[in-house]
Design a protein that fits this description.
232 residues; mainly beta; Porin; eight-stranded antiparallel barrel; 10 strands
Length: 232
Amino acid sequence: MKYSVALLILLHACSAMQAQQSIGIKLNGGLSNIVERNDNGQALKHIFYLQPSYHAGLYYSIHLPHRFNFGSEVLFIKINGKQYTGIPYTDNNNNPTGEYSSDTVWRHFSYVGLPLYIGYSYKKLNVNLGVQANVRLGGHVRDKGSALSNGDTIRWENKSKNLNGIDKVDMGLKAGFIVDIHKGFALEATYFYGLNNLYREAFTNWKLKSRQCTVGLRYTCYMRNKKTALKK
């Protein structure tokens, strides 16, 4: 958070220098994943599936000399993940039989996202890199699986909105590029790479991290000091 505050101060300082400023809206759709790994050496079979995802909101950009700009956004973000986990069965000699118990987990998280980034423009292309904090608003987890027990197959299916074991804040890196199209419209692609373990301390042998890749459109609704910026 200290870095975020410092960047916000820089943004206000830049606006005081009468740099070109723009405000707009954006809507992006794409794919996301929530990856779970364990560090205890247990031999598990994991398969992770990409899931539909999106984000939408407002952006604010300050254009600086030498083709640089600072940007910040306020977004509503939906990140989804699907995961298959198989636990191998072993025979009396502890050799794998090739069969697995199965458990499929669907995770759905909603966030308010606060990206801060610096960009560099060349002609109609802008490339940017920064940090992003996602604060969770809500979500739920659903799992469905089966296992063998004494020759019988046990099946289960559960759904829960209890996310007490999941961190409310997801911090990560944000990268992207923007291509101006026509009269305030721009094409955008972004990638979010979550860094912190979403599991809290009670799950120290496991790590849960999110990823999101989107493409979409931006539209600049308001621009200030355009003439001043063009003279530079």
